[in-house]
Design a protein that fits this description.
This is Fatty acid desaturase. With 335 residues, this protein is mainly α.
Length: 335
């Protein structure tokens, strides 16, 4: 059998993905109610987050359980945002579409706004694997120094500050203030609370600040601490898990086609991180071949599609690429 070209392999994968989706929709006609499904998922996720926060407020669950549950719930809102960016839901009803965009941003306040992210994400699909891919570079892709990479993965704002000088030189049209202002006012408030609480407790090590706070200051601190548990720390866990996986699975340099843009991560060692980013590492590569597809469809067809992708040249668990700053090598090293 003659060896297939990259174009033929890509066509085979795309065809398989679309065929499986069509078969799934034919078997379960309810899947054609795409807008309704997305809205239900969004409302259930929002109500679940509010419910978990309420249980913590009433001292019915401990802080650690609230943090874990909230992190899992907000990972679903990220998948919804991803689909909304590709206008999978309510594209003909802008007010409802934008309402959903706002809600998923509120649930994930440590991100830039979804309308700006749409711009850099669609650009990501065009330039994935190159130094022009701002979206992936913002979360650590292409960074060789492990310490710098860890900081960028965990703290988006600090990562932006660290990388801005390099981005100015390498990325066309990059402006620090454009990205920074894309987080206003929600992400701005998030980081003010986060850094404020950290600064308060660091100062507490050297002086008793609590006795010096006025009554309104005590109330503000209580609200900030509550938000830390129900929203801020969960999103640190969620975004760090997502950033770690996405920056690990996307290649940087040496990329010539869609097959070379990503590898699939389904190693059992990544299960704890997959839990907080809705199995992103195992299913995201499917999205690169067929972007206009709801996230739950990718999940449902992944078991059949992953072996097909492997047959047609998509790599799996190429974790050595992290040591190469995500460089795609034509001759793959042993894993």
């Amino acid at each position: 059998m003659p060896k297939l070209t990259a174009k033929q392999n890509i066509q085979a994968i795309v065809s398989a993905i679309k065929t499986e989706e069509q078969a799934l929709r034919a078997k379960y006609p309810v899947l054609n109610q795409q807008n309704s499904i997305a809205l239900v998922i969004l409302l259930l996720s929002l109500l679940s987050l509010i419910g978990v926060a309420s249980l913590y407020y009433m001292s019915l669950i401990p802080a650690w359980l609230c943090i874990i549950l909230a992190a899992v719930i907000t990972s679903i809102s990220h998948e919804l945002e991803h689909d909304l960016i590709h206008k999978q839901y309510f594209s003909k009803r802008p007010w409802l579409h934008n309402f959903m965009m706002l809600v998923v941003w509120l649930m994930r306040p440590n991100t830039v706004n979804p309308w700006y992210r749409r711009k850099i994400h669609l650009h990501h699909h065009k330039v994935s694997g190159t130094n022009q891919d701002l979206e992936e570079r913002l979360v650590g892709n292409g960074i060789k120094n492990p310490l710098v990479r860890a900081v960028v993965i965990v703290d988006g704002l600090l990562g932006l500050v660290i990388s801005s000088k390099r981005f100015n030189k390498e990325i066309k049209g990059f402006k620090f203030l454009t990205v920074f202002n894309a987080g206003f006012p929600i992400a701005t408030a998030y980081f003010v609370i986060l850094y404020g609480v950290i600064a308060y407790y660091l100062l507490q090590l050297f002086m008793p600040l609590e006795s010096m706070l006025p009554s309104w200051g005590v109330d503000v601190l209580a609200v900030a601490e509550f938000l830390m548990v129900v929203l801020i720390i969960p999103n640190i866990i969620r975004s760090s898990s997502l950033n770690f996986i996405t920056s690990s699975m996307h290649y940087y340099g040496g990329v010539n086609n869609v097959i070379e843009q990503t590898h699939v991560i389904n190693s059992r060692w990544f299960i704890p991180f997959q839990l907080f980013c809705f199995d992103f590492g195992r299913t995201h590569t499917i999205h690169h071949f067929v972007p206009n597809q709801p996230f739950y469809i990718r999940q449902l067809i992944s078991q059949k599609i992953l072996p097909i992708m492997a047959q047609h040249g998509v790599r799996f668990n190429d974790l050595r690429s992290i040591k190469r700053a995500n460089l795609y090598e034509t001759k793959q090293e042993g894993v």
